[in-house]
Amino acid sequence: MSPTVINSRMGLVEWSMLLLLSMLWGGSYFFVEIALLEWSPLLIVAVRVVIACVVIWGIVLAAGLPIPRSPLAWMAFFWMGLLNNIIPFLLIVWGQKEIESGLAAILTAAAPIFSVIVAGVWLKDEPLTRSRLLGAVLGLIGVVVLIGPSALAGLDANLLAQLAVLGAALSYSFAGVYARRFTRMNIDPIVAASGQLLMSSLIMILLVLAFEAPAQVIESSAKVWAAVGLMAVFSTALAYILYFRLLASAGATNAILVTLLIPVTAILLGALVLDERLQWLHFLGMAVIGLGLSVIDGRLWQRFIRLHGAPR
Q1: What is the pLDDT, as a whole number, of residue 154?
Q2: Do 203 and 81 meet the contact criterion of CB atoms below 8 Å apart?
């Protein structure tokens, strides 16, 4: 069977999915800050993936979706769980103990740059191009402007925590490329999400039993349980259903653009819900991010060239 060709350009449905995904994943930074008040990073990640696993398997079983029996499929779920759940979740949560969430969001937004390079090396239908790399760099600059350059002041402290968050961004980029095999194996996006979460849950349960005291979870406050529960249901189970559907239709490079939109939705939600005031830097940052996304997509610039001719 010939490999599935992914359309590198996104339509309205894909852009809508990307925006919703950015809102779901953006909330996880807030939920992590609350959970860290009482739980260790290991406990937060373990409870998050276990609850999400129960929710998404309930959907799979209720819908009667076919469950793969191939050992190759389950080995792929194992590696996807490591690359897309365990490694990045632990690194980001641990990093947020030492650095501000704004700086963490900026460092995570480096994922599209990594993804453009990784996908360009490993995927024939997502080649490394100057426009994609330029767009990813512009998007990262826009995130810095949006969050505020002052967040970069933390770069002179706790280098290890910053490297951890960058490591999470790199892991996400490899996960996006690796996940393409689920499309080639004709595995439903919901089943792919449930498979990786099941393998992640089994690994995290073993780690918690080995290194933590699980009893403290029971004694935790309702606020922490609510934060982790919401993060598990919305920022994990629902988010990964969207993520795998986006990967299947738009490709790894486009799916990881969500890390550029997460700060945008966070700022806009703060203005709409918390009545926070938008500053001129916010609008400038959003404009630069939009410019970067348009460069990666390419259609606007190709239309401009057709209308005005290529530069001489």
Answers
A1: 59
A2: yes
Residue 41 in domain: yes
Q: Compute the Cα dihedral for 309, 297, 109, 169 and give only its sign.
A: negative
**Single-letter code of the amino acid located at 96:** Q
Asked whether residue 159 is assigned to any structural domain, the reply reads: yes
Higher-confidence position of 87 and 27 = 87
Q: Is the pLDDT of residue 147 over 70?
A: no
Report which of residues 307 and 149 the model is more confident about. 149
What is each CA distance from 33 to 38, 199, 207, in whole angstroms?
10, 26, 22
pLDDT digits (tens, 9 = 90+) for 25-68: 877 877 888 888 889 889 999 999 999 999 999 999 999 999 99
Q: What is the pLDDT of residue 79?
A: 95
Q: How far apart are CA 131 and CA 137, in angstroms?
A: 10
Residue closest to 130 by CA, chosen among 112, 116, 115: 116
Q: Which of these, 257, 238, 200, 269, lies nearest to 24 by C-alpha position? A: 238
What's the domain range around 252? 12-130+150-259
Q: How many CB atoms lie within 10 A of CB 141?
A: 16
The count of structural domains within the chain is 1
User: What one-character DSSP code corresponds to residue 53?
Assistant: H
Tell me, yes or no, whether 68 lies in a domain.
Answer: yes
What predicted TM-score, i.e. pTM, was given to this entire model? 0.77
The predicted model gives 142-166 an average pLDDT of 72
- Asked whether residue 312 carries a pLDDT value surpassing 50, the answer given is no
How far apart are the C-alpha atoms of 117 and 176, rounded to whole Å?
12
For tokens 């779920």, name the residue. Answer: 77
For helices 71-81 and 159-178, what crossing angle results, to 10°? 150
Buried b / exposed e along 34-59 (16+ C-beta atoms within 10 A): bbbebbbbbbbbbbbbbbbbebbbeb
Burial class (CB in 10 A: 0-12, 13-18, 19+), 72: exposed
Residue with tokens 């970069």: 152
Residue 61 belongs to some domain of the structure: yes
